[in-house]
Amino acid sequence: MGKFIRQRAFASLISLLLLVVAVFFLSRLTGDPAALYLPVEASEEMRQQFREVHGLNDPVMVQFGRYVADLVQLDFGESIRKARPAFDVVIESFWWTLQLALITMALVTVAAIVLGSLAAFRAGGLFDRIATVISLIGASAPDFWVAIVGIVVFAVGLGWLPTSGVGTPLHWVLPIAVLFIRPFGLIVQVVRGSMITALSSAYVKTARAKGVKSQTIIFVHALRNAMLPVITVIGDQAAALLNGAVVIETIFGFPGVGKLMIDSILQRDFNVVLAAIMVTAIAIFLMNLLIDMAYSLLDPRIRH
Q: How far apart are CA 76 and CA 95, in angstroms?
């Protein structure tokens, strides 16, 4: 197991280094921060002084070398916009995104596994057809469209829910509900297909012949053997929530790392952009490592 984890961690480290290089140079293409933060009438001397203070006067390769040297010491630099360590700014926002992702994925995983398993147990029946239609609609629905419809109906029309912020539990309902729909639809489909295969196995037929209860057959005998593809999809969707909730956070004014990243790109706050991407990437790599470990526990052959 130790060798397996080291191999996965090394592969993730290489990907992370490549990501740092790509994001650093691409972020420099967004423009000169001095033109954004200084008034239009600012003199060239003022602009040069601004760039000097923030280390933007040096050639790009020199800036990159300095950034890597600081990164080795876990120094992500300072936010131009907030005059605070970029890492602190990102962690504050990332905590909100992490809470949103964990709550959503916990609800999605339980609901999708239960619905998909029950649909597979009566494959072709009325419940299965209804579950299939619901899951297909959920998997196909665009997040941004569902978010806008949710605001129009439940916030503006009925006045039941707030449109933005995180002040009360009600503020979380719409973001969680919108983020719930797509992964729920995808995972239900995977659980259903995998469970149909597992339920047709010889050991399940033997258990049925012995009079084992249906709940035990579904959730004890069949589910474990059907979980490998399900874990893959759950991991992918969890990573997508961490990395791709940018639109939903922006629509609902949710103070997560996705919204922070968009704001920082528009405001050319390079250090915050890099820190946000680094923190998100590390979280995704750790999640993938946990998924690989779960794989190896469910199927020891994968370790080799």
A: 18
Note the Cα 270 to chain centre separation in Å: 22
Angle ∠(109,188,228) on CA atoms, nearest 5: 70
Measured CA to CA, the distance from residue 77 to residue 80 in angstroms comes to: 9
Asked if the structure places residue 1 within a domain, the reply is no
Which two structure tokens, joined as six digits, stand for 170?
A: 């009600």
Number of CB atoms found within 10 A of residue 210's CB: 7
Q: Is 40 helix (H, G, I), strand (E, B) or coil?
A: coil
Counted domains in the chain: 1
* 275, 76 contact by CB (below 8 A): yes
Q: At which residue do the structure tokens 């972020």 appear?
A: 27
CATH number at residue 163: 1.10.3720.10
- Asked whether the predicted pLDDT for residue 302 surpasses 70, the reply is no
- Full residue range of the structural domain in which residue 162 is found: 86-190+225-303
Residue 109 maps to a domain: yes
Give tens-digit pLDDT for 120-159: 877 778 888 888 888 888 888 888 888 888 888 888 888 8
90: in domain: yes
Task: Judge whether 275 and 87 are in contact, CB under 8 Å.
Answer: yes
Residue 15 domain flag: no
Instruction: Decide: helix, strand or coil at residue 259.
Output: helix
Range from 9-13, 136-140, 195-199, 293-297 that averages highest in pLDDT: 136-140
